[in-house]
Every structure is written in C-alpha cells, then in structure tokens.
Design a protein that fits this description.
The complex is a heterodimer of chains A (412) and B (82). Chain A is an alpha+beta fold and 412 residues long. Chain A contains 15 helices and 12 strands. Chain A is globular, with a radius of gyration of 24 Å. About 2% of the residues of chain A have low confidence. With 82 residues, chain B is mainly beta. Chain B has one domain. Chain B has no helices and 8 strands. In chain B, strand 2 and strand 3 form a beta hairpin. Chain B is globular. In chain B, 18% of the residues are buried. The model of chain B has no long low-confidence stretch (mean pLDDT 95). The chains are: A alpha+beta (412), B mainly beta (82). Bound molecules: magnesium ion. Magnesium ion binds next to strand 1 of chain A. The site of magnesium ion (MG) has 6 residues of chain A, from strand 1.
Chain lengths: 412, 82
Amino acid sequence: MKERVILHSDMNGFYASVECMLNPELKGKPVAVGGSVENRHGIILAKSEEAKKFGIKTGEALWQAQQKCKDLIIVPPHYDKYKAYSEYAREIYRRYTDLIEPFGLDECWLDVTGSTHLFGNGYDIAYQIKECIKYELGLTVSVGVSFNKIFAKLGSDMKKPDAITIISKENFKDKIWSLPASDLLGVGRATTNKIETMGIKTIGDLANIDVDLLVCRLGKNGRDLWMYANGMDSSRVRPDGFRDPIKSIGHGITCKEDLVSTEEVWKVMLELSQNVSKRLKEEKLNACGVQISVRDNQLISRQFQCGMPIATQSAMELAHAGIELFTTNYNWKYDVRSLTIRAINLQPDDEPVQLDLFSNVTKHEKQETIDNTVMAIRKRFGDKAIINATLLNETKIPKDDHESVLPAPMFK
Amino acid sequence: MAKRKVYVKVLIMQDENGEIQPLQIVWDDGKSYEVDKVIYKCRASSTKVGGTGIRYTVRISGKETFLYFSEDENRWFMEGKC
Ligand SMILES: [Mg+2]
C-alpha cells in the first residue's frame, strides 16, 4: 500500500484566539475565555499565549487564574462564533480533501494522500493550509504531518503555535520515542499509572516492550497502544460529514444551587426534557426508554433507567418517566447537584409502534398534539414564547446552559 | 495608525449568477461614496479592526481601500480612521 499522508490541524488556543481576532484590542494581552463568574461554571475555558505565560490552565477556577495574573482579561464565551469559525476552517480543508475528520471544534484530521499530485507533499499542503487560515481567518494552527493519525496528532502538539511538525517513517524513533507515553492519544491517566508500574515511561518504552505482556496488563487496548507507539496505527480518516448512528440523546446540567426538593427536581427535569424532546424531533427519533443520572452534593452519581410503554418524543412524557425514576429510586440522603436525563433505546419515529393492551394511546396522542403545538409556537415566536407555568419561577438552572461537543473515538 | 471598525450601508448589484458587486457605500456620518471599481476579491481577515469576511479591494474617489462582507455577522464593514 502507498504510504498515507495524514495531517492533523489544531487551531491554537481556539476560543481565546477567536476572541482576540474579533477584537484586536485584546491582542498581545493575557486573555482568557471563562464561564460566568456567579455560578459553578466559573472556570477557564481557554487562554491566550500571553495568559499561558502566567501559568493559567484550562479548567481552573476563574479566581485562581486571577490570582496568578491580576491583569487577566476574562471574556465570556461566544459559542456561535466558535462554531462559525470552526466551519470556515473546515471549508478551507475541503479545498484539499474530502477526508476530514473533526476531533472537537478546533481539531481535524485530513487524509491528503490523494491530493499530493495536485498540491505538493504533506509539508507543502500543511503550509498552504496554515497560511490560508492565517490570512483568511486571522487564526493560527499547528499541523502535524505523518503517515498515520496517531503520529499526526502527536506532531500537532509538539510545536505550537503556528508551526508544522513532520513525523516520518524515517525519523519517528528519534523524534518521539523519548517523549512521555502519556503524550500518545489513548494513553490516559489510568493507563499511564498502570504502565508506569511496568517501568514504561516513554513512547519508546511502550514500543519496545513485549506486546503480550502489555496485552496481559491492558487487554486489547494494550495491543493498540503498542501498535501506535510503533507507527502501525492504520485507522482511517472518516469522510467529511460522517456521523455515528445516535445511541442516545441526553441533556444534563449542574445547578446553580443544590436542589432540595422533588418539586425543584421536577422543574429541572422538565426543562431538560424539552431540550431532549426537541433534539429527538430534529433527529426524527423516538425514545423507547429513559435514563437519569443524579449526582448529589458529595459528587456521587447514580443512574436509573426504565422502558417507556409507548415510544415517544414528548417532553412531558420523558419528564414524567424521569421524575418517577427519581422518586422511586433516590434516597435523599444528600441534596442534588447535577441532573441528566437521556432518551435511550432510540428508533426512527416513522417505525410502526407496537402497542400493548394497557397503555393509554389516546392520552399519548393528545400529549403529542400539545407538544407539537408548543413546538410550532416556539419556532415562530422564539423559545421563550410559551413555557410551562412551573418554569416561570426561579429554577436554579444556570443561564449559560451549554453543551460542549465531545470528540469522537478512533475510527478503525 | 489606529483604525476603527465602521459598519457601512452598501448598495449592491447581484447578477444572475449570484455574483455581488458593491456600487455605493454610505459612511457612518451619512455621506455616500461611489465605488468606482472592484479591483480584487478574496477571503481575508482584517488585522487592523478585527473580524473576517469576503474582502473587496475597491477604488473609491481614486483611492484603493478594503470593503468587507462579514459572513458571521451578515453585514458590511470598513477600516476607518480614528
Ligand atoms: Mg486547539
């Protein structure tokens, strides 16, 4: 097989860079994007290069960051802009290939093997992309160029911002075997701890250990990691627009204050269910089951689930199932901090529905009509045009309730 | 020299292929200017005032200047003197 040319492009300090690009007055200053200060989401989401110099880390509390740097400028996130600029970058990638696999909003793998005869070798294409993104979008990327996805990703992390790193079949042993094993994609905290007890510290250690020993310790994952370290990752870059079949649709939040009564839990459940219901309708799916996760203020999580008598998209029905699960299972030893409701066992909503003798179909259909009417009103007049009376009062739901995009797993 | 972002009104002509040509701009003080010629069109970011878009290099009153259409804001802007 012809050697593949894989790029991994990573937009540097993405959220913070977009903010600085849109507002040049921020340029050259320590800038961080932070969740709102008044609730528990008050953490650093991204930081500029200048803020990095003060030791500010993503994920730390805003007050901690401000202690490290008193001139730190904290700006609120603008997710719509980040999504837009993520998409503009992908439009640039599409000039070079249709094999584009996003990894979060700011990273993408590109397989450009088929375009090298048009645009030059891997480095040339990486350079064109990097310069193009700088010129057209005012943002910088670091690009890893390699013959597999794992090394391309590693390369994009090695030199940043605004840089290109090549990891070839000829140089990878010199270039990366001395790096810590945890730099490899797929080697998380738990794996790092396990392999450290085997005396494995670097990627080279990982590559040179007896693979059977690794499998013995880590299972199938052990073989994968050994292959990765030896440059034998053969996972493909997914075609542009590829989507996993959806297994569940859920929505969860951490509340501004702990929930102290079933009534408060009900309000949050109802609010969350409306989001889930909306997305079920968008995806044209019905839920045959409901699952809830409850995390108490000791940060212990529990999950409960049940089936639905009739497959549904209705917010009200999902919320009712959710609250019933809650009241029958939750022991109220501690107050509730986070709540998630998930529609599970999904099926296409045009599939014939199997009814049983006891379910109240008329009631279900009535509820569906109500839901659809509410949805239509919201579509015309906005999300807040019609809401459940119980949600008119304070609900302890944070205002910047937003879901992050989770990176996809590796595609074999 | 420092520049400021000036959002402008633009009179455009869109041809049957969807191509857009700016004909006249109205500055934020209300004065209007003819666009004599579009010299070049590309995507670019404005390092001076921030933001990005489709950048038209235009000639107005004999001078070359940039006119941007910001796609994420869906409006036009220029780089003005402070
Ligand atoms: Mg990044």
